[in-house]
Amino acid sequence: MTHVVTLSAPNAQDCVALAEIELCGELMIAASAAGEERLSPDRIDEVLDVRGAESWATVPRQAARRR
């Protein structure tokens, strides 16, 4: 007998988790390209595409450093 596994549609938590994984991947790529130095907060914001005050609510740690 064969068991069929059906995958449900992705829920909001799945979408958020996938977005976080993608952002972590972007940071790892940027860090590996930077050599041995650390990424500056400005470079991290650039990699994560953080812009202006509207993004402060979603990335509070970086926004706090800019104030």
Keywords, separated by commas or semicolons:
single chain, 67 residues, mainly alpha, elongated
Description:
The protein has 67 residues and is an all-alpha fold. 55% of the residues lie in helices and 0% in strands. It contains three helices and no strands.
Brief write-up:
The chain is mostly helical and 67 residues long. Helices cover 55% and strands 0% of the residues.
Low-pLDDT parts are: none
The largest sheet, given as strand count, sense and whether it forms a barrel, is: none
Helix content: 55-70%
Oligomeric assembly: single chain
* Percent in strands: under 5%
Element-level helix/strand string: HHH
N-to-C terminal Cα separation, in Å?
63 Å
Tally of DSSP β-strands: 0
Counting helices, strands and paired strands, the structural category is mainly alpha
The total of helices stands at: 3
Q: Please state the CA-atom Rg, rounded to the nearest Å.
A: 17 Å
Which geometry do the CA atoms define? Answer: elongated
The overall pLDDT average reads 76
Topology (SSEs and partners):
Blueprint: H1 12-33, H2 41-48, H3 60-66
